[in-house]
Amino acid sequence: MAAAHTPREAVRSAAEAARRALGGSFAAVSVWERELGRLRVLVNSGELAVGEEEFPEHESYPVHEFPEITEFLHEQWARGGEPHAWVEVAGGPGVDPYAGTDAAGGPRGVLRGVSPGRAAALRRRGRGSCVVAPIVLHGRAWGELYVARRAGGPVFGRADADFATVLAAVTAAGIAQTERLEEARKLAFTDPLTGLGNRRAVDIRLDEALEAHRRDDSVVVSLVMCDLNGLKQVNDTLGHAVGDRLLERFGSVLSLCGAMLPGALAARLGGDEFCLVEVGPSADEVVRVADELCRRAAELELGEGVACGVASTGDPIGPVHSARRLFRLADAAQYRAKAARSAKPVVAGREGGPEDPVVRLADSAAADRSIRAPERRRFRGRL
Questions:
Q1: How do beta strands 306-312 and 346-347 pair?
Q2: Signed CA dihedral, 23, 100, 113, 61: sign only
Q3: How far is CA 173 from CA 7, 44, 70, in A?
Q4: Beta-ladder partners of 26
Q5: Confidence class of residue 70 from pLDDT cuts 50, 70 and 90?
Q6: 258 vs 115, which has greater pLDDT?
Q7: Average pLDDT for residues 256-284, to the nearest whole number?
Q8: What is the DSSP string of 226-268?
Q9: Measured distance CA(341)–CA(298) in Å, rounded
Q10: Minimum mean pLDDT among 84-88, 90-94, 201-205: which range?
């Protein structure tokens, strides 16, 4: 689990390792979604029955069909005990709970009678017995680890239940670590004010996109640069808290418009600068969304709309071998939009290909640093 790169890989590692360790033919990890009152299966591992998938999209079960995850656990904890795994069998009520107490004096019934829901599921899928171990995270039931054996195979016993309890605790620790890593990744690639991606996220997405474009030049990569007009005036006259609300509100508009393009990354680069990164859709589709973005930004109750520039490998802008060049082109287009107070996006390459004023501005900015001071400020850190 520690070596997994995603939460999905982590739970798959846990399920597969538990299945092997307990000699099972099948294993699953499920999460208890309290607000929906259901156990949702995250991963199935091993011998899958008809209709089962490794990563099911819609496999879930009402918790009232499997009340142990709620009622049984809370009965145990209420008496000061610890959650413990239990065994279910496919047929006949011949499995009695065994008596005894845990270290805290609570009941320790590990082998349980037949749960109608689980027994039916075992029979339907050709399995003879299962061991179910609650996964407890942050002091609450998070879900369950489930391992089954084929019909006709050895029935799980007390030692298996004890071992499954340990495995569930290790799984819980792995899930907690995965959650911490996911939160760290989120912080590393997310703008804290708007919740959009940040510059690091943009750099990585563009590098990956342009690598795909270099392998296949039919892959269209587009960058929409946005400069929020009037933010300084809002900050100076109404205060930075109101300015932050404007940034958040525009971030929501950018996210909404980005959703019109499959897989688009909406990001805040810093200050009043935002962008959209898109891979796949045509340049015309991207320009259409940029136009909608300008229209919606102009309707915000604060600020003065947005200056928007677009650069796309789908337009005649010359070769794009690096993210730096695409940034220069989109930034130059944005600069022209701002200077002209344009209510629509300015698109690099659409006024004459390589001789387009935007393309020439971007190229001259890269060639020498003698451009005018306002332009030099716009390009600082990107050349």
A1: parallel
A2: negative
A3: 13, 20, 21
A4: 46, 148
A5: low
A6: 258
A7: 90
A8: EEETTHHHHHHHH-HHHHHHHHHHHHHHHHHHHTTSTTPEEEE
A9: 12
A10: 90-94
